[in-house]
Structures are given as structure tokens and as C-alpha cells.
Design goal:
The protein has six helices and three strands, in the order αβαβααβαα. The protein has helices at residues 6-15, 72-82, 95-98, 108-119, 135-140, 167-184; strands at 50-52, 87-90, 123-126. A three-stranded parallel sheet has the order 1-2-3, with helices on one face.
């Protein structure tokens, strides 16, 4: 048999009391590997190797062109695949773009971004956008803002600009999550 399963030899050496056996006692299990050919071992399911991606940041004028403002997304998807990435997380800070005005939703751009990733062979984990409430919400309901150490409200428009104890915040979260799930939950 070829020397393709070097780990068998290492394990055998550790079992026989070779140097290092006392350092890694968990490797000294007495398992018969006589008939094991590591080239035949296949994982039961793929290992996910992912990244976060914010397609809303990669449009013209920051990337892309005036003619194709979202063109950078394709190149980024290609680079992710080349790096061995197979899953991408998107959307957790996009509430203000999903709902620029209360009750007015726009998920078209994210559907296009999901399509680009899916067409490249990437799975998409769509995050809930609740980590960054839109400015209009904080202005309408300043009671959702967290307080600093002096009891003064922090400013709207940043990530995590909400108080976890605010029932108003949670009510709006439920609305955006429900609408988002209905719009993109099965896309593509």
C-alpha cells in the first residue's frame, strides 16, 4: 500500500509507546486500522467555510461602474469561490436599505445579490437586519436608543443603536423579519 495514510503510522507509533504518546494520550486509542484506506473516507456532509459580505457597500461609486453599478458582486463571488468559501452571510445591517421609509420595502437589490452568489455556487445565509435599525425608526421612537453610562441616549444611525429591553424595538424587528422572510426566504 502506498504511503498515503501517514497518520496511520503516527497512530501506530503512539500506540506502541513512541515518543509523544504521553503528551497526546487521546491519540493512543487502540483502534485497528489494518483495513483502513483514507482515500476512501468521504465526509458525511460538507464543511461550511464562509464569510460575511455586504453587497450594499460594493456598488457604484465605490465599486462597479455607472453602467453596471453592481458588477463588483460577480468578481467578489468568483474570489470567494477561488478561496474555497462555500457559504456567505449577508444582510444583517441592511434594515435602512430594506425599509428606507416606514412600511416601504425594497428587497430587489438583495435578491440580485443572492442570485449572483447562488450562480457562483455559494450558499447564502441571509441575516436578520436588526443589528442596525434605520434612522427613521430611532427618530420616531427615540426610546429604542440605548443609554450611555450617564443615562443619555446614544445616537441613531450606528450598528447596535437599540436597547434590547425596548418592546417597541422588538415589535419593529418582528415586522421587518416577517416581511423579509416572505420576500426572500425561499430565494433562489
Amino acid at each position: 500500500m502506498e504511503d498515503s495514510c501517514r497518520e496511520d503510522e503516527v497512530a501506530k507509533g503512539l500506540e506502541e509507546g513512541a515518543e509523544g504518546a504521553d503528551v497526546w494520550p487521546f491519540l493512543s486509542l487502540r483502534v485497528s486500522r489494518a483495513d483502513l484506506d483514507c482515500r476512501q473516507i468521504q465526509p458525511l456532509q460538507p464543511m461550511y467555510f464562509g464569510t460575511d459580505y455586504y453587497p450594499e457597500h460594493w456598488v457604484y461609486p465605490y465599486a462597479g461602474t455607472p453602467e453596471e453599478p453592481e458588477s463588483r458582486w460577480q468578481r467578489d463571488a468568483e474570489l470567494m469561490v477561488a478561496a474555497g468559501i462555500n457559504v456567505v452571510r449577508m444582510g444583517e445591517f441592511a434594515w435602512g436599505l430594506y425599509e428606507p421609509q416606514e412600511g416601504k420595502y425594497n428587497f430587489d437589490w438583495m435578491a440580485r445579490a443572492v442570485d449572483v452568489m447562488a450562480n457562483a455556487g455559494l450558499q447564502v445565509m441571509l441575516g436578520t437586519p436588526t443589528a442596525a435599525p434605520p434612522i427613521w425608526l430611532a427618530r420616531k421612537h427615540p426610546e429604542i436608543l440605548p443609554l450611555d453610562e450617564n443615562g443619555l441616549p446614544m445616537h441613531e444611525g450606528t450598528r447596535k443603536a437599540y436597547c434590547m429591553n425596548s418592546s417597541v424595538y422588538w415589535d419593529y424587528c418582528k415586522k421587518i423579519i416577517t416581511v423579509l422572510a416572505n420576500a426572500l426566504g425561499r430565494h433562489p
